[in-house]
Amino acid sequence: MDGAPSGASCVPLRDGVERAPANGTGILSCGCEETAPALAGAVFAFRQAGRAPSPPLDALKSAPVAHAAPAGRIVLVRLHVIDPTPIHTLARRLELPPVHERLLLRAWLLGHGLERFAATRGAPFSVSLMQALPELQVELDRLAMAAQQHASADGSRRLVIRLADGKTVESVWLARQAICISTQVGCAVGCSFCRTGMGGLERNLHAAEIAAQVVLARKHGHVTRRVVLMGMGEPIHNLEAVLQALELLGGEGQLGHKELVFSTVGDPRAFERLAAHHVRPSLALSLHTLDEGTRRELLPRAPRIEPRALLEGALRYCERITWPLLVQWTLLEGINDSPQQALELSEQLKGRRALVNYIPWNVVAGTKLARPAWERGVQLVRTLRAQGVLATLRRSGAQDVDGGCGQLRARTAPATAPVS
Length: 420
Hints:
Blueprint: E1 10-12, H1 35-48, H2 57-61, E2 65-67, E3 75-77, H3 86-94, H4 98-109, H5 114-120, H6 127-141, E4 145-151, E5 157-162, E6 168-174, E7 178-180, E8 184-186, H7 195-198, E9 201-204, H8 207-219, E10 226-229, H9 239-250, E11 260-264, H10 268-276, E12 282-286, H11 292-298, H12 307-321, E13 325-331, H13 339-349, E14 354-360, H14 374-386, E15 390-393, H15 407-412
Parallel strand pairs: 7-10, 10-11, 11-12, 12-13, 13-14, 14-15
Antiparallel strand pairs: 1-3, 2-3, 4-5, 5-6, 6-7, 8-9
């Protein structure tokens, strides 16, 4: 098709009026039990007010990058598999029909054993494939293994996950059928309030390793209908693998696209990629302040973008997918917890599709930062709500088992040299 890359399959958008089903709330951050129903209410309120009409169904199922096309026609192109899973590799080697490849991917992503799945099919797989399944299952299982599990009194479960090369990341199995997963081993952003950022970046995760964290939860009986990329790592620094993982989870993994939450420090270029992608997730922006100098100190290696411009780019993306933006604001005493800052934020968000999630800081030893009193967070929420802006105050889960990002891994993992 004209304007599309060679070898890519193109799908035109229909001019339909079909409405996509609302598959739950689409957002739940680590330990945040209040955010999901609040965001669901936000979606309902925005649609009732006529500010967020439901998109055509095909718009949610179209492919990634928009290209030039004849006048009046929009063309989207599906993502190429650039980081193949072991299933993709085996399918190419054995020249499996595409339907068999998809069946294997679906069985794996839903947490079913491949051999058991193959044995229950009415039409058996080929002999060569059946013989390869035991070794394939072992390879898939090694992508993400539970090295440690720590149950919390609030019902969540924090895991240290060992990868095939011995590196470790963290994951949290949350209540309300949600899971928080990592996208990198470590993180390069270096947030001054985050334990993961203090250790630097060791390496990116492959798409299969990102998806395997969800598979591990499902295999152990944790019903998973919502996945948030709020664990270790910055998704935009590993964008290609993250996009492919979203394709897996939002496709054969049978997760609603708005049930996949892309949490990021932000970059308008990444927002454009997400908007053109086949699976367009809901967005959580780690903003924390509107002051450019303060944000540079808190997030020293985040993209150098003026916070208001960054917020506007995130809001525009969420308007395109017709789903509210989650604005994440970690509360630090004396830095970003004043009522005046809340009023300034409300000026940016009035009448826009957004929900502010105030997050009391998870204390990290060795820093000079302080966590404000709970009552201060309540005051800020009331300030925003009085201005007509939806806001919540998070009760972070798993705090009795070092539940903050990177805390458990830092306590248990051996020292390693980060990537410069």
